[in-house]
Amino acid sequence: MKRYTITCQHQSVHITEWGNKHLPTIVCLHGLGSTSLSFIEIAEALADEFRLIAIDLPGHGKTPAFSDPLHYRMKPFTDWIDEVLHILDIKRFYALSHSWGSVLSLYYLIEHANRVLSTILIDGGYHSKRLYGRSVEEEVAFYEQDFEDSVSTWNEFLNIAVYAPNARRSPSLDQAGADLLRMDEERFHWHARGETAAAIVRALHHDDVLDFLPDVPPVDIQLYVATLPLDQAPIRQQATNLLHKMTQATIHHVPGTGHMLHWDRPDVIIEAIRHHWSPGKRLSSA
Fold it and tell me: Can you give the pTM of this predicted structure?
């Protein structure tokens, strides 16, 4: 694993990379509040088969937030991602994303589909703000408070902020958890700030997925969907049906998984990558 910084639009951008540049490239976009190490277990398993590039998106990890909150809207943000990839000299690639990163991944296809060989979405890209019915101000208030909370010990941070109750744990996921930490006055804080989360929530309401999914071109899209909590099954089914109808994405429900599906069942995503992007099906990523 290599971690390094590049400069894009006069700001530093932190990158995590596994594998080598002679292998087919997978670009990884993490979810809201996460970092590039969200994909650590998948990358460790596949580093001999693929080059994996994961970006700390603005306001996350070691990449500073955008100075203008409007830059979190889909068009300027995905243009920024494209510029980062040009700086990294990545021409064509496979796209792997989780949650909010999957919304960005789908919007990226609208203007840059010629660069994407295939897309795997991990429990994301289908959470329409309109369908889920929470007002923008309610959601902003929730995230502003949630992201600014703190605890007094590392174990509390792991138990409350990093892992869901009864979730599987591993040394690699502990390392990913440490990447989420910000210390302030001997308190353990979430690394991303409430104002960053608020700007992203406002952008997701402004650019609702149902508004732009009809513009997504025909690209191979595989969506792996969490099945917990069970009480979300009806709205989850409605939302994924709409995604399929609008994009022809293939939907895979993964039993017994929560929203951090790739942490609950990394083996499912690892095998999905090997299956869908195997040498026999693979196009050149040069």
Answer: 0.96
